[in-house]
User: Fold these one by one.
Assistant:
Number 1:
Amino acid sequence: MTYFPEEVVEHIFDFLGSHRDRNAVSTVCKAWYGVERLSRRSVFVGNCYAVRPERVVARFPGVRSLSVKGKPHFADFNLVPDDWGGFALPWIEAFARGGLGLEELRLKRMVVSDESLELLARSFPSFKVLVLISCEGFSTDGLAAIATHCRVLRELDLQENEVEDCGPRWLSCFPDSCTSLVSLNFACLKGEVNAAALERLVARCPNIRTLRLNRAVSVDSLSKILARAPHLVDLGTGSFTIDHHAEAYHRLINNFTKCKSLKSLSGFWDASPRCLPAVYPICGNLTGLNLSYAPAIQGADLIKLIRLCLKLQRLWVLDCIGDKGLAVVASTCKELQELRVFPSDVCGVGTAAVTEEGLVAISSGCPKLNSLLYFCHQMTNAALVTVAKNCPHFTRFRLCILDPGKPDPVTNQPLDEGFGAIVQSCKDLRRLSLSGLLTDQVFLYIGMYAECLEMLSIAFAGDSDKGMVYVLNGCKNLRKLEIRDSPFGDAALLEDVGKYETMRSLWMSSCYVTLKGCKTLAAKMPRLNVEVINERDESDEMEENPSDLRRVEKMYVYRTVAGPRNDAPDFVWML
Amino acid sequence: MEGGGSYGSDLDNLKATELRLGLPGTDEPKKLPSMLPRSSKWAILEATKRSSSEIKSVEKDQKPAAKAQIVGWPPIRSYRKNSYQAMKMEAETTGMYVKVSMDGAPYLRKIDLKVYKGYKELREALEDMFKCFSLGEISRMDESNVYEYAITYEDKDGDWMLVGDVPWEMFLSSCKRMRIMKGSEAKGLGSIP
């Protein structure tokens, strides 16, 4: 291939869609490395501390789209202290200084300040897409900067961020000349919104297809918006409370009926069951439905709604749907691919949560199911074996039995066999979360069968170091391993230190790993960052030189070419 | 071997001072294959790993405590957890206000159903509230031993139901508004509110 002119090679590389493929061709030879790096348009950084931003800028001067992930996954569950790190500013600064023509930025679990948003908005005149997922550190003032300065903004997508509310003015900062919006999601904002400004914005953006409103948007406003934007494909409804006798309600139904393209619905924050009939006209077209923030919709109302959703592919609900409700889903939604059932404390008295029965029903009714997140009160081995047989196409299987370490209630056995059946049957399984009572045996199965597994989450499971070793030895494609409250110690950690360079990261908290083990690992593997996170433990005295034999509370290990990071707070020890 | 009694009581004392996991006053838990170390973190897990038959008796008290102590469990994103908590708090603090109309009264009233513990209290409160209209007592029966007024409510499906048939909690979750119906219209609804 060396006698092909560079333009031809570059053209061939254009057909390589995935990051992995592009990464692979860049290692073939110097010439290819050169062509690849100059023609690369999109970079994905799975761990913001794995590489320095300046290095990315230097290597890929033509990059237009950047995705970066920050905190470890368990930060979602408050296991990582607030100031741990994951700052967006260094990335934005590096790209600005490098003079790159950044157009798209996607950040997950990072700390994004208003200052960084301001810098972002001002530095890249062609900036089009901003997606922030589970981020924090910014306020609506930062959004105002984006709205003001990003003249060709196409997407502003805020998913489940903690955003400080500084008032509704940000929305009015979109200039009258801004007509390019295709996607606007501000559902996670807690504050008030200027309804008139919102309606005008929607009216002047003819290409808008995704619109997710926050709780403050009234049904009246929603009605007007639907009237202006009947081509919407994805809608987050806002509060959705309305007196169902009122004229506004009838207007709403009419406007919904006009939305022939609507495929995805979410929101329903304060929806009462009486309002649901407004969406009946479009239910038959829905492929996505998220009712997981609507605790008031339960029982018969919920079932009535679901019976109309014949084309549903993605469903997110609360567990007050009950096993009976899931049976209805199973008989109605034959195209279902993704199901998430979240636990709810807010459901009223007497509502059934879900058990293994609901899951079995789903598995037999929905053979296309490939992605599951299921919070339940109990699970049996028999049920899991059945599910494994019915649905061999799982790529993501996350089961959370709410009582940690709970056995199969029928046989009193651990759930090893059940999960074993899942990994054996689902050859394409990439992500797995375990729960319930589990011994080392389940890890033996995982090591043996889960060949494609990339991410494994373990909590309150296993008996000994052997469990962790089975996984490290067996899962060739493992990228992320996160473990909490399980009896794995130094022997397991140090069994195969080279393995961690083939993975993105390892998290262990409340396990048996000691400081000595961490230090040993750090010494053996200079290209890993070994972080020990110590929050002040009230029972211990503050020690200057803690004993190496003391167990570490939290440890985070990741491969990196950037060396130890310089922004670590006091409570994080870089070994 | 002398003083077998005292020897026996020594053993008893020893048992009393024995350190073991599990709630005080319960039998020693069955040892499952996994031997967990003795540290406070594992006490919760050990307790929840006991066989289900033993769990049943202590679970009711123990479960909320165990759940409260485990950080980051269940694994739900903080954003979602905070949303649920906010919703729950709202539901608890805002009260459950429903309109109450009485046939013949010039205006309606609103009451917070959450304030009452049961049907008796509710009836008494309504009596109190509407006696100013001099329309007669809600609890008064006429000649044929039928109540003059019937307390009814509109449920989630829009039907008018007689108050008192279902358990109080179920009533709370399905009542949208109430109407105190005059006897002549209420005859069909039965006699015991």
Note: Chain A touches chain B through 48 residues (CB under 8 Å).
Number 2:
Amino acid sequence: MDEEPERAKRWEGGYERTWEVLKEDESGSLKATVDDILFQAKRKRVFEGHGQVRLGMMRHLFVIIDSSRSMEDQDLKPNRLTSTLKLMEFFVEEYFDQNPISQIGIITTKNKRAEKLTDLAGNPKKHIAALKKAVDGTCVGEPSLYNSLNVAMQTLKHMPAHTSKEILVIFSSLTTCDPANIYELIKTLNALKIRVSVIGLSAEVRVCTILTRETGGSYNVILDESHFKELLMLHVKPPPASSSSECSLIRMGFPQHVIASISDQDAKPSFSMSHLDSTSEPGLTLGGYFCPQCRAKYTELPVECKVCGLTLVSAPHLARSFHHLFPLEAFQETPLEEYEGERFCEACQGELKDKSIFTCQACKKVFCVECDLFIHDTLHCCPGCPQPPI
Amino acid sequence: FRLNIEGLLVYFPYDYIYPEQYSYMLELKRTLDAKGHGVLEMPSGTGKTISLLSLIVAYQKAYPLEVTKLVYCSRTVPEIEKVVEELRKLMDYYAKQTGVKNDFLALALSSRKNLCIHPEILHANIVVYSYHYLLDPKIADLVSKELAKKSVVVFDEAHNIDNVCIDSMSVNITRRTLDRCQTNVETLQNTISRIKETDAAKLREEYRRLVEGLKEANVARETDIYLSNPVLPDEILQEAVPGSIRTAEHFVGFIKRFLEYLKARLRIHHVVQESAPQFLKDIYEKVCIDRKPLRFCAERLRSLLRTLEIADIADFSAITLISHFATLVSTYSKGFTIIIEPFEDRTPTIANPVLHFSCMDPSIAIKPVFGRFQSVIITSGTLSPLDIYPRILDFRPVTMASFTMTLARTCLCPLIVGRGNDQVAMTSKFETREDFAVIRNYGNLLLEMSAIVPDGIVAFFTSYIYMENIVASWYEQGILENIQRNKLIFIETQDAAETSMALEKYQEACENGRGAILLSVARGKVSEGIDFVHHFGRAVIMFGVPYVYTQSRILKARLEYLRDQFQIRENDFLTFDAMRHAAQCVGRAIRGKTDYGLMIFADKRYARADKRGKLPRWIQEHLTDGSLNLTIDETVQLSKHFLRQMAQPFRREDQLGLSLLTLEQLQSEDMLQKIAQIAQQA
């Protein structure tokens, strides 16, 4: 790391409103305390992850994107809509990377109506293509929280009970235009065990507070674009499953990737099942994944077999979902003054300057704040601990 | 937990304490120690009530001979109920901690249906009731005159206490009052003649008693049992009721004559203003009514009603009012004015003559309270500037202090908007209030705010007329339509039923996410009694400076009196009055430390030091140079930023140690030092 990440973030976050950051510092403790609180919250997330928690690994997530007039606001650059869609693309990729056996769907709401942009599906490409197209859409009217939650609910309620049913609302407007009492809908959502989380783009709205509290989701409001990204990324991790959710065994197929070269005489080019609904990709291919049950061919995993309904995954996918179940234990936080060893971070080799340091309980190596977060959020294993013999 | 406040053991029924509560109790104890009066300002939502109760109860327990009774006066029934609730909590805590069964008797008198005039009040340790029981001579006589001298009297929410005093001593007489009084007199006459036939002895007995004079009452007062009633001045007690009104028939005849005189006075076509002596002179010349019998009117009527054993006193309110007027006008030569208006200013074509007998000196009503009780505490969230209250109420406090709110995050954001984006100054000043640009800018401000503030916004105007004008021209300019895309609009009217309906719908719209704006009026019902916690009031916008309607003759007379008697300049008083109402209005939004809200003062005059300096310290503290004289755009930027900051998760642990303390934290040295800075002596 050639530059201190903290600096870089502040630069990025404050580039439009640097004067405000300056003002807060001068006038008093406001900025500092809020930052402090945020930092504490960040640490807390790390702690929460630890322990034996059952996680909802098979997720069905609907993302509701507000596309009302308020999305034209330019406090995110170039405007809220473009910025949101760009982050969403990133989110979709990251989501499937971390939750390979899950699905996502996108709903937009504007002009008091809600419509599905994409249906629940496991293919990131389709979603990203749809998001790219949505950038050109116009933002008009008011959003309808009720209608969009209702659309999401109609699909989610048919999902099997062992899956984690989630809705994530990205809510920019401060008003919602509802055809009926939303509190009734919240009750229904709660009964169906659908977890609703909200990311607000402007301020705290009461109805969202209630909505998230009742359904067990989280509610956050962004400070700036980098904070937005951070909040969005929180939803990449699978949430703890409620204790009442069912457990069941799921049949899964692990198709082998058959590679065939043109030179091979036996190879027969064939259509993939996924081409049934898209025309953009080349038609005939040689190799691919073949469903172990019905021999249907697919070019990409993970996918649900269109013929026999078997969930097809590859072993690395399943393994990747796994680290959520066995998270790295939280490092112990100690004030810098009490630490007597050499003041270098084990990971980045930088000098320990922050007010506290973090010690791995297993190998007793010390790390700085940023590395601590990096290790827990991304790496998921301690670089200091001796690797187990393979 | 248990606190030690300068050697006094105080039981506090909560696990955590705000630093300012500790500081408040400290000041309160010093006041009680000195056996003096105090003026204390502490923001609402910081637990004023429980601090007051726990300290005074502890004081009573520790020094039962010094302080025998706590009289807690609050304004409205819900407020009284809140006090009782806190008191109950405190008592339960005492019972749990000490294991002794509670020997404290507390009594709450709330609405009329619960009115209790049982002598039990004498023995109660704590009495909670409305201001009027102590200040209004008509009621005080029934309820409060037997309160012991060693009582501590607390006036909560006392920022308007001077107006309450004045109202309680003022009498307005219309034609309707006189008509009803006429019927009262007739009923009295009939009853008297009936009783004369059946039970003449009763009337004779009353006559005998009146000859004896009011000696008994006098004895009682000297022995300190009674709180003196301002309507019944000391001198009267020395004397017997004059002969001319001693018999029942003569008295009724006397009242009739007085009534006819008043009727004649109301038959006028131009405004008359005169002083009490002038009035007395006139009445003597015209109908030969002397000053002396007039003074005994109230007392004589009461005695008569008692003798005739009339149960339903309420029916006789008109005649009682007239008799009070008679007594007051003949007793006080100073501090009152009589204004007779043939019609209301707004409706000059409809004859509706009113006789205002208006008190100009609030100290008259409250004087007996200060004189009698050893400690009187005046407290509220907005009492700034502190020094004006002792001046207009004419007393000498031993402590005057203003407390700030310690906050873990800055949850209030006062902003002064002085200009529109077109740089045109925004003000409700009389000369420019009809200005098209000003009205448009006010509209734009509301429009912009409606787009960025979540849930509820409360906007205050300076008067109903001004609100009507502005809303009408917003409608013409299409601003209302644009606002309604963001939020629904509700309007307070002078009709109470309509207003409470609007309020209910407003809250519903805030609750279900549609968002709403409530347009209301400073000094109206909404600005005084109704709290907008959390999402019900994320922003308050104060359009203009809420000066009182200065053309009113009553106000002019009062201003003149203040200038002559108390050397308070007209402008000073008007500004003070306007600012306390503005502070009340904006204070509606913040009702506690977890709450947050914007306070937007939309008038460039707020930026001036003489206005700004009269805001409560807990608001002034957050008013930096950067938030004065902003344009609409700047306001929007600052507000957006503030609302985002406030929407970040905020938990109780974040407050601990800063604005919320456990006992250990409280006892640490540097915390005690910090606490010492919270109170600012005036």
Note: Residues 1-30 of chain A have pLDDT under 50 and may be disordered.
